[in-house]
Design goal:
flat; Histidine kinase-, DNA gyrase B-, and HSP90-like ATPase; single chain; Heat Shock Protein 90; HATPase_C_sf; 1 helix
Length: about 60
């Protein structure tokens, strides 16, 4: 079992050439590290009539790479 959190906004969205993995944004780096490394989850960003962020984490956290 897992938990999924979907966050949406209806703004301008992400730039067409935006690559989340290559972003120099400290905030995105922190969020990605917490979710993927510490919680063994996934963090995805999409353009969907604005920005859509999807966070998925297991219901039983192992974490701690």
């Amino acid at each position: 079992m897992e938990y999924v959190i979907d966050l949406y906004d209806n703004g301008a969205g992400l730039p067409d050439d935006f690559e989340p993995r290559n972003s120099k944004s400290l905030g995105l780096q922190i969020v990605r590290t917490l979710i993927e490394d510490d919680m063994s989850g996934t963090f995805e960003l999409y353009n969907d009539h604005g920005t859509h962020a999807k966070i998925t984490v297991p219901s039983s956290l192992g974490g701690g790479k």
